Amino acid sequence: MSKAYFRPVLKLHYKPIDFIFEFFALAAIIFMWSYCFYHYSSLPQIIPVHFGSDGHADGFGSKKTIFFLPILVTLITLLLRFLNRYPHKFNYMAEITEANAERQYLMATRLIRYLQFILSLLFSYILITEIKGAYAKNYQLGIEFVFLIIAATFVPVVYTVYSSLIKK
């Protein structure tokens, strides 16, 4: 068998930033659910449910679909939290050894925490835009949002991969 199957299983010591990402991801999820329940009864029967790459709404649906985003973010967050318990099973660009395992695991788990945090914020923004757009009949997310998504998700992934390949 390959060495990859015999990676050390470590108890990681997280930094405050890890807990901050977790806290704000959870806060965003609670906000999303609260915001949906607060606005649900006053929403029009048809609301924007999809935005094209130009930022304009191009799909509409029942107001019940407003709960899709909180459900999706909750499920993604639960899945990512579960996966984060097993960093020794992740795929890594660098070979995992006793010497670098903790550093590699911490970088990988922090990236997942960051992504769950940023996804919860981005989906919260989409939810707010859907609900405000439903009231105002102004269905625009904005083209800059596409660039924000790319920057907020792609840049940290590239940075983490690059950092994982640097020997320290």
Helix-strand sequence: HEEHHH
- Domain module count: 1
Helix share of residues? 55-70%
Tertiary shape: elongated
The termini sit apart by: 27 Å
Radius of gyration: 19 Å
Which characteristics define this entry?
168 residues, two-stranded antiparallel sheet, mainly alpha, 7% strand, 2 strands
Report on the structure:
This protein is mostly helical and 168 residues long. The chain has one domain. Helix content is 59%, strand content 7%. It has helices spanning 16-40, 68-83, 101-136, 144-165; strands spanning 46-51, 57-62. It has a two-stranded antiparallel ribbon. Helix 3 (101-136) runs antiparallel to helix 4.
Secondary structure topology:
Blueprint lengths: L15 H25 L5 E6 L5 E6 L5 H16 L17 H36 L7 H22 L3
Antiparallel strand pairs: 1-2
Helix pairs in contact: 1-2, 1-3, 2-3, 3-4
Summarize the structure.
The chain has helices spanning 16-40, 68-83, 101-136, 144-165; strands spanning 46-51, 57-62. The chain is mainly α.
